[in-house]
Fold this sequence. Notes:
Number of domains: 3
CATH topology of the largest domain: Hypothetical protein af1432
CATH class of the largest domain: Mainly Alpha
Amino acid sequence: MGRLALPGDGFFAEDRVRLIQIFALADKYGLEIHPLAMRAAGRDSKLIDNEVRADPRANALFLDVLTSPRNPETVLRWMNEAGIFGRFVPDFGRVVAQMQFDMYHHYTVDEHSIRAIGLLSRIERGELSEDHPLSSVVIKRIASRRVLYVAVLLHDIAKGRGGDHSQLGAEVARTLCPRFGLSDAETEAVAWLVRWHLLMSATAFKRDLADPKTIADFAAQVKSIERLRLLLVLTVVDIRAVGPGVWNSWKRQLLTELFNSAEEMLLLGHKQKGRRERVAATQAELAGRLGWEESRFARLAWRMPDAYWISEPIDVLEQNARFVDRPTGRLQR
Protein backbone atom coordinates (compact mmCIF):
# COMPACT_ATOMS: atom_id res chain seq x y z
CA MET A 1 0.00 0.00 0.00
CA GLY A 2 1.29 3.47 -0.90
CA ARG A 3 2.07 6.19 1.60
CA LEU A 4 1.57 9.93 1.36
CA ALA A 5 4.86 11.81 1.21
CA LEU A 6 5.77 15.47 0.80
CA PRO A 7 7.32 16.94 -2.39
CA GLY A 8 9.41 19.38 -0.39
CA ASP A 9 10.27 20.61 3.08
CA GLY A 10 8.21 23.80 2.74
CA PHE A 11 5.05 22.06 1.54
CA PHE A 12 2.93 22.91 4.60
CA ALA A 13 4.27 26.46 4.95
CA GLU A 14 3.21 27.23 1.35
CA ASP A 15 -0.44 26.46 2.22
CA ARG A 16 -1.15 25.80 5.87
CA VAL A 17 -4.51 24.18 5.11
CA ARG A 18 -2.48 21.27 3.77
CA LEU A 19 -1.83 20.32 7.41
CA ILE A 20 -5.47 19.25 7.50
CA GLN A 21 -5.72 18.19 3.87
CA ILE A 22 -3.05 15.50 4.11
CA PHE A 23 -5.13 13.64 6.70
CA ALA A 24 -8.31 14.04 4.64
CA LEU A 25 -6.49 12.55 1.64
CA ALA A 26 -5.19 9.67 3.74
CA ASP A 27 -8.76 8.89 4.79
CA LYS A 28 -10.28 9.33 1.33
CA TYR A 29 -7.82 7.06 -0.45
CA GLY A 30 -7.07 4.63 2.39
CA LEU A 31 -3.39 5.56 2.54
CA GLU A 32 -0.88 5.76 5.36
CA ILE A 33 1.20 8.88 5.88
CA HIS A 34 4.93 8.52 5.51
CA PRO A 35 6.79 8.90 8.84
CA LEU A 36 8.79 11.83 7.46
CA ALA A 37 5.54 13.57 6.47
CA MET A 38 4.13 12.93 9.94
CA ARG A 39 7.28 14.37 11.48
CA ALA A 40 7.00 17.45 9.25
CA ALA A 41 3.33 17.87 10.20
CA GLY A 42 4.23 17.74 13.87
CA ARG A 43 7.04 20.23 13.35
CA ASP A 44 4.80 22.62 11.39
CA SER A 45 1.71 22.21 13.58
CA LYS A 46 2.54 25.58 15.15
CA LEU A 47 1.64 27.16 11.79
CA ILE A 48 -2.03 26.52 12.59
CA ASP A 49 -3.37 29.82 13.93
CA ASN A 50 -6.75 31.53 14.11
CA GLU A 51 -6.64 32.28 10.39
CA VAL A 52 -6.31 28.58 9.56
CA ARG A 53 -8.95 27.65 12.14
CA ALA A 54 -11.40 30.05 10.49
CA ASP A 55 -10.64 28.87 6.94
CA PRO A 56 -13.76 27.21 5.44
CA ARG A 57 -11.58 24.80 3.44
CA ALA A 58 -9.79 23.55 6.56
CA ASN A 59 -13.03 23.12 8.47
CA ALA A 60 -14.72 21.26 5.62
CA LEU A 61 -11.73 18.91 5.35
CA PHE A 62 -11.73 18.31 9.10
CA LEU A 63 -15.47 17.54 9.06
CA ASP A 64 -14.88 15.12 6.17
CA VAL A 65 -12.38 13.22 8.33
CA LEU A 66 -14.59 13.29 11.42
CA THR A 67 -17.68 11.99 9.61
CA SER A 68 -15.88 9.62 7.27
CA PRO A 69 -17.82 6.46 6.36
CA ARG A 70 -14.50 4.60 6.36
CA ASN A 71 -12.29 4.65 9.47
CA PRO A 72 -12.28 8.08 11.15
CA GLU A 73 -10.81 6.75 14.40
CA THR A 74 -7.46 5.88 12.85
CA VAL A 75 -7.00 9.18 11.00
CA LEU A 76 -8.14 11.26 13.97
CA ARG A 77 -5.59 9.41 16.09
CA TRP A 78 -2.87 10.27 13.55
CA MET A 79 -3.91 13.90 13.71
CA ASN A 80 -3.75 13.76 17.49
CA GLU A 81 -0.32 12.12 17.52
CA ALA A 82 1.03 14.81 15.18
CA GLY A 83 -0.35 17.57 17.39
CA ILE A 84 -2.56 18.84 14.56
CA PHE A 85 -5.88 17.95 16.21
CA GLY A 86 -5.26 19.99 19.35
CA ARG A 87 -3.89 22.96 17.40
CA PHE A 88 -6.83 23.04 14.99
CA VAL A 89 -9.40 22.53 17.78
CA PRO A 90 -7.81 24.17 20.86
CA ASP A 91 -10.68 23.06 23.10
CA PHE A 92 -9.74 19.48 22.22
CA GLY A 93 -6.10 20.32 22.86
CA ARG A 94 -7.04 21.16 26.44
CA VAL A 95 -8.17 17.57 27.11
CA VAL A 96 -5.27 15.82 25.36
CA ALA A 97 -3.61 13.46 27.86
CA GLN A 98 -6.03 14.64 30.56
CA MET A 99 -6.59 11.85 33.07
CA GLN A 100 -10.05 11.07 34.47
CA PHE A 101 -9.77 10.32 38.16
CA ASP A 102 -12.69 7.98 38.76
CA MET A 103 -13.23 4.25 39.03
CA TYR A 104 -14.84 3.92 35.61
CA HIS A 105 -12.71 5.58 32.93
CA HIS A 106 -9.69 3.68 31.65
CA TYR A 107 -8.54 6.31 29.15
CA THR A 108 -7.60 9.96 28.95
CA VAL A 109 -10.34 12.30 27.74
CA ASP A 110 -8.93 12.64 24.21
CA GLU A 111 -8.49 8.87 23.83
CA HIS A 112 -11.99 8.24 25.19
CA SER A 113 -13.47 10.67 22.66
CA ILE A 114 -11.57 9.22 19.70
CA ARG A 115 -12.53 5.68 20.73
CA ALA A 116 -16.17 6.77 20.93
CA ILE A 117 -15.96 8.04 17.34
CA GLY A 118 -14.55 4.68 16.28
CA LEU A 119 -17.37 2.80 17.99
CA LEU A 120 -19.93 5.11 16.38
CA SER A 121 -18.46 4.41 12.96
CA ARG A 122 -18.50 0.65 13.57
CA ILE A 123 -22.15 0.76 14.66
CA GLU A 124 -23.03 2.75 11.54
CA ARG A 125 -21.24 0.20 9.35
CA GLY A 126 -23.21 -2.62 11.02
CA GLU A 127 -20.18 -4.24 12.64
CA LEU A 128 -21.61 -4.23 16.19
CA SER A 129 -25.19 -5.25 15.50
CA GLU A 130 -24.94 -8.26 17.81
CA ASP A 131 -23.92 -6.12 20.80
CA HIS A 132 -26.06 -3.12 19.85
CA PRO A 133 -29.07 -4.28 17.81
CA LEU A 134 -31.23 -1.24 18.62
CA SER A 135 -28.54 1.36 17.94
CA SER A 136 -27.63 -0.38 14.67
CA VAL A 137 -31.21 0.11 13.47
CA VAL A 138 -31.80 3.55 14.96
CA ILE A 139 -28.63 5.08 13.50
CA LYS A 140 -29.96 4.51 9.98
CA ARG A 141 -33.01 6.65 10.80
CA ILE A 142 -31.10 9.69 12.05
CA ALA A 143 -31.57 12.80 9.96
CA SER A 144 -28.10 14.35 10.40
CA ARG A 145 -24.98 12.21 10.69
CA ARG A 146 -22.94 15.36 11.22
CA VAL A 147 -24.85 16.22 14.38
CA LEU A 148 -24.18 12.79 15.85
CA TYR A 149 -20.47 12.68 15.01
CA VAL A 150 -19.78 16.21 16.22
CA ALA A 151 -21.75 15.59 19.44
CA VAL A 152 -19.75 12.44 20.16
CA LEU A 153 -16.52 14.35 19.59
CA LEU A 154 -17.55 17.22 21.88
CA HIS A 155 -19.49 15.46 24.64
CA ASP A 156 -16.54 15.58 27.10
CA ILE A 157 -14.74 18.57 25.57
CA ALA A 158 -15.12 20.73 28.70
CA LYS A 159 -13.89 18.24 31.29
CA GLY A 160 -11.40 19.61 33.78
CA ARG A 161 -12.64 23.20 33.66
CA GLY A 162 -13.91 23.35 37.22
CA GLY A 163 -17.64 23.31 36.47
CA ASP A 164 -20.36 21.12 35.03
CA HIS A 165 -18.66 19.79 31.91
CA SER A 166 -22.02 19.19 30.24
CA GLN A 167 -23.10 22.82 30.55
CA LEU A 168 -19.69 24.19 29.66
CA GLY A 169 -19.44 21.77 26.75
CA ALA A 170 -22.72 23.00 25.32
CA GLU A 171 -21.26 26.51 25.24
CA VAL A 172 -18.17 25.22 23.44
CA ALA A 173 -20.43 23.45 20.91
CA ARG A 174 -22.29 26.67 20.12
CA THR A 175 -18.96 28.28 19.22
CA LEU A 176 -17.34 25.40 17.35
CA CYS A 177 -20.25 24.06 15.30
CA PRO A 178 -20.75 27.16 13.13
CA ARG A 179 -17.00 27.18 12.52
CA PHE A 180 -17.21 23.57 11.32
CA GLY A 181 -19.96 24.60 8.90
CA LEU A 182 -23.00 23.27 10.74
CA SER A 183 -26.33 25.07 10.38
CA ASP A 184 -28.06 26.85 13.25
CA ALA A 185 -30.41 23.89 13.74
CA GLU A 186 -27.53 21.40 13.72
CA THR A 187 -25.59 23.57 16.17
CA GLU A 188 -28.50 23.64 18.61
CA ALA A 189 -28.94 19.88 18.28
CA VAL A 190 -25.25 19.27 19.08
CA ALA A 191 -25.35 21.70 22.01
CA TRP A 192 -28.43 19.96 23.41
CA LEU A 193 -26.81 16.53 23.11
CA VAL A 194 -23.62 17.68 24.81
CA ARG A 195 -25.63 19.35 27.57
CA TRP A 196 -27.76 16.24 28.22
CA HIS A 197 -25.44 13.40 27.19
CA LEU A 198 -25.72 11.82 30.66
CA LEU A 199 -29.51 12.08 30.88
CA MET A 200 -30.41 8.73 29.34
CA SER A 201 -27.94 6.65 31.34
CA ALA A 202 -28.88 8.41 34.57
CA THR A 203 -32.57 7.77 33.92
CA ALA A 204 -32.15 4.16 32.79
CA PHE A 205 -29.77 3.08 35.55
CA LYS A 206 -30.96 5.14 38.52
CA ARG A 207 -34.72 5.51 38.18
CA ASP A 208 -37.70 3.16 38.15
CA LEU A 209 -38.62 2.53 34.51
CA ALA A 210 -41.90 0.93 35.56
CA ASP A 211 -43.04 4.29 36.93
CA PRO A 212 -44.92 6.24 34.21
CA LYS A 213 -43.63 9.50 35.69
CA THR A 214 -40.05 8.43 34.98
CA ILE A 215 -40.88 7.98 31.31
CA ALA A 216 -42.97 11.14 31.19
CA ASP A 217 -40.20 13.25 32.73
CA PHE A 218 -37.60 11.83 30.34
CA ALA A 219 -39.80 12.26 27.26
CA ALA A 220 -40.63 15.83 28.28
CA GLN A 221 -36.91 16.61 28.42
CA VAL A 222 -36.12 14.95 25.09
CA LYS A 223 -39.16 16.31 23.22
CA SER A 224 -38.55 14.66 19.81
CA ILE A 225 -37.92 11.26 18.23
CA GLU A 226 -34.82 12.58 16.46
CA ARG A 227 -33.26 13.70 19.73
CA LEU A 228 -34.16 10.37 21.31
CA ARG A 229 -32.41 8.46 18.55
CA LEU A 230 -29.34 10.67 18.69
CA LEU A 231 -29.18 10.45 22.48
CA LEU A 232 -29.43 6.64 22.48
CA VAL A 233 -26.48 6.17 20.14
CA LEU A 234 -24.40 8.83 21.91
CA THR A 235 -25.11 7.15 25.27
CA VAL A 236 -24.12 3.72 23.97
CA VAL A 237 -20.79 4.79 22.49
CA ASP A 238 -20.00 6.92 25.53
CA ILE A 239 -20.45 3.92 27.83
CA ARG A 240 -18.58 1.53 25.54
CA ALA A 241 -15.63 3.92 25.16
CA VAL A 242 -15.10 4.16 28.93
CA GLY A 243 -13.15 0.91 28.96
CA PRO A 244 -13.32 -2.87 28.49
CA GLY A 245 -16.00 -4.74 30.39
CA VAL A 246 -18.10 -1.65 31.16
CA TRP A 247 -20.87 -2.48 28.68
CA ASN A 248 -23.15 -5.41 29.58
CA SER A 249 -26.54 -6.92 28.76
CA TRP A 250 -28.16 -5.32 31.82
CA LYS A 251 -27.32 -1.82 30.57
CA ARG A 252 -28.46 -2.73 27.06
CA GLN A 253 -31.79 -4.01 28.40
CA LEU A 254 -32.47 -0.89 30.49
CA LEU A 255 -31.53 1.54 27.71
CA THR A 256 -33.70 -0.41 25.25
CA GLU A 257 -36.64 -0.36 27.66
CA LEU A 258 -36.29 3.37 28.24
CA PHE A 259 -35.94 4.08 24.51
CA ASN A 260 -39.02 2.01 23.60
CA SER A 261 -41.15 3.54 26.35
CA ALA A 262 -40.08 7.10 25.51
CA GLU A 263 -40.58 6.53 21.79
CA GLU A 264 -44.06 5.21 22.50
CA MET A 265 -44.92 8.27 24.55
CA LEU A 266 -43.48 10.72 22.01
CA LEU A 267 -45.35 9.03 19.16
CA LEU A 268 -48.66 8.31 20.84
CA GLY A 269 -48.85 10.80 23.66
CA HIS A 270 -50.11 9.23 26.88
CA LYS A 271 -48.04 6.17 27.67
CA GLN A 272 -50.77 4.02 29.16
CA LYS A 273 -53.25 4.80 26.40
CA GLY A 274 -50.66 4.03 23.73
CA ARG A 275 -49.67 0.82 25.48
CA ARG A 276 -53.26 -0.43 25.65
CA GLU A 277 -53.76 0.30 21.96
CA ARG A 278 -50.56 -1.53 20.99
CA VAL A 279 -51.41 -4.53 23.18
CA ALA A 280 -54.93 -4.74 21.77
CA ALA A 281 -53.69 -4.47 18.17
CA THR A 282 -51.06 -7.17 18.71
CA GLN A 283 -53.54 -9.50 20.39
CA ALA A 284 -56.05 -9.00 17.56
CA GLU A 285 -53.40 -9.83 14.96
CA LEU A 286 -52.28 -12.92 16.86
CA ALA A 287 -55.87 -14.11 17.36
CA GLY A 288 -56.38 -13.86 13.61
CA ARG A 289 -53.29 -15.93 12.96
CA LEU A 290 -54.21 -18.62 15.48
CA GLY A 291 -57.91 -18.88 14.65
CA TRP A 292 -58.79 -20.05 18.16
CA GLU A 293 -62.11 -19.79 19.92
CA GLU A 294 -62.47 -16.55 21.86
CA SER A 295 -62.39 -18.19 25.32
CA ARG A 296 -59.33 -20.20 24.44
CA PHE A 297 -57.40 -17.13 23.31
CA ALA A 298 -58.64 -15.13 26.31
CA ARG A 299 -56.94 -17.61 28.64
CA LEU A 300 -53.63 -16.98 26.88
CA ALA A 301 -54.09 -13.20 26.89
CA TRP A 302 -54.94 -13.19 30.60
CA ARG A 303 -51.73 -15.02 31.52
CA MET A 304 -49.31 -12.61 29.82
CA PRO A 305 -48.41 -9.06 30.99
CA ASP A 306 -48.66 -6.04 28.71
CA ALA A 307 -44.86 -5.87 28.35
CA TYR A 308 -44.84 -9.32 26.75
CA TRP A 309 -47.18 -8.24 23.93
CA ILE A 310 -45.13 -5.13 23.19
CA SER A 311 -41.62 -6.52 23.41
CA GLU A 312 -41.88 -9.60 21.18
CA PRO A 313 -42.40 -9.74 17.38
CA ILE A 314 -45.63 -11.32 16.14
CA ASP A 315 -43.98 -14.48 14.79
CA VAL A 316 -42.40 -15.17 18.19
CA LEU A 317 -45.75 -14.60 19.89
CA GLU A 318 -47.39 -17.08 17.53
CA GLN A 319 -44.67 -19.67 18.08
CA ASN A 320 -44.93 -19.31 21.85
CA ALA A 321 -48.74 -19.53 21.80
CA ARG A 322 -48.71 -22.75 19.80
CA PHE A 323 -46.06 -24.20 22.10
CA VAL A 324 -48.02 -23.62 25.31
CA ASP A 325 -51.20 -24.84 23.60
CA ARG A 326 -49.81 -28.30 22.91
CA PRO A 327 -51.64 -31.22 24.64
CA THR A 328 -49.17 -31.03 27.52
CA GLY A 329 -49.65 -27.27 27.85
CA ARG A 330 -51.82 -25.58 30.42
CA LEU A 331 -54.34 -24.12 27.97
CA GLN A 332 -55.69 -27.58 27.17
CA ARG A 333 -56.13 -28.63 30.77
